[in-house]
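Quick one:
INPUT:
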């Protein structure tokens, strides 16, 4: 039976990079992949089309889909909208409405790009970290939240960082399961020296760890983790952390690999239904210029094939095709260096399809 994919390009470069992913998916379809693809607006595009960042029809579509491919959301023209109408709310709405609590953000260094990293090549060579970020809880969603006026008339802003044991338990299990399939080392990142919520987090992760005796579990404070990531990143195999810490650490880890334009992500619910997106944003400064790197989105398609559509071989073939294209010296502006052939978004997409065809 054909699977249903919701395609949400969103805003900015989201449109260009998703077009390249669609090119690839259409090629796979013409070679036998049974997939129905339906496009819908989200983010600023959702606001423009229906007056809100997550239009009802889009929500209906994603609920009945097997997987979702997302570009990026946001743009300067939406920055002055009331908070609940801003593009980011569309993204957060998708995560919470679909219960996508497990966010997988791999940071893998393609050997061909070692020179694009801001760290020395020997520090990042062979880098392969999986960050597991809790995505539907913590300070992003905690109540109460808001901006209120104090008795003296001064305003104060407040948010709530809260995690229940079951929320920690389920994300910890996802991380341990992934660690079992990789190097069997898991580092849980928290701030247990200051925060009660982290104290409980650490306790629950440790408890879950007793079900995974083969995994070597360690704990690290988030400030130290940030430092270790740039000092000696290869010490990490799998990291698991709260929503906000994961947001921050995954950007840092991404940069180790040379460009945030290379990294895909998967956000999964309890049944492996997933939303797949590049971890970079909508990059309004380069939107529409045809220079954005489509590889993070193309690699997100590979993750989708692996985690939601059970097409492991196709996933591997796509990842291999990306390697082939990099071997051939093709580079978008964000990863280019001397001696390489600089190409635009479309040429990069075409080259991946051609490599797939040849491989
Ligand atoms: C991310 C982004 C989002 C987040 C924003 C756009 C809401 O930074 O996916 O990392 O903070 O989660
Ligand atoms: Mg982020």
């Amino acid at each position: 039976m054909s699977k249903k994919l919701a395609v949400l390009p969103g805003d900015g470069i989201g449109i260009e990079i998703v077009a390249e992913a669609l090119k690839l998916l259409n090629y796979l379809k013409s070679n036998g992949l049974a997939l129905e693809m339906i496009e819908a607006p989200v983010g600023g595009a959702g606001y423009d089309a229906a007056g809100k960042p997550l239009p009802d029809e889009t929500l209906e579509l994603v609920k009945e889909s097997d997987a979702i491919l997302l570009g990026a959301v946001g743009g300067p023209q939406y920055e002055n909208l009331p908070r609940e109408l801003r593009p980011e709310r569309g993204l957060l709405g998708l995560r919470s409405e679909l219960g996508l609590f497990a966010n997988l953000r791999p940071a893998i260094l393609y050997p061909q790009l070692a020179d694009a990293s801001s760290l020395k090549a020997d520090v990042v060579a062979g880098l392969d970290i999986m960050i597991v970020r809790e995505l539907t809880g913590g300070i992003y969603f905690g109540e109460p939240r808001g901006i209120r006026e104090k008795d003296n008339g001064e305003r104060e802003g407040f948010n709530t960082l809260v995690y229940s044991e079951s929320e920690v338990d389920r994300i910890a299990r996802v991380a341990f399961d992934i660690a079992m399939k990789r190097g069997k080392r898991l580092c849980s990142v928290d701030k247990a020296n200051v925060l009660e919520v982290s104290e409980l987090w650490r306790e629950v992760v440790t408890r879950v760890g007793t079900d995974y005796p083969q995994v070597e579990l360690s704990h690290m404070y988030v400030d130290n983790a940030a430092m270790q990531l740039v000092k000696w990143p290869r010490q990490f195999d799998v990291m698991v952390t709260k929503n906000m810490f994961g947001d921050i650490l995954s950007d840092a880890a991404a940069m180790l690999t040379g460009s945030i334009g290379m990294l895909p992500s998967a956000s999964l619910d309890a049944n492996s239904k997933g939303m797949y997106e590049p971890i970079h944003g909508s990059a309004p400064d380069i939107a529409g210029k045809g220079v954005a790197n489509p590889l993070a989105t193309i690699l997100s398609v590979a993750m989708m094939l692996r985690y939601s559509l059970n097409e492991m071989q196709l996933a591997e073939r796509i990842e291999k095709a990306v390697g082939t294209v990099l071997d051939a010296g093709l580079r978008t502006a964000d990863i280019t260096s001397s001696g390489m052939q600089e190409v635009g978004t479309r040429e990069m997409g075409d080259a991946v399809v051609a490599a797939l065809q040849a491989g």
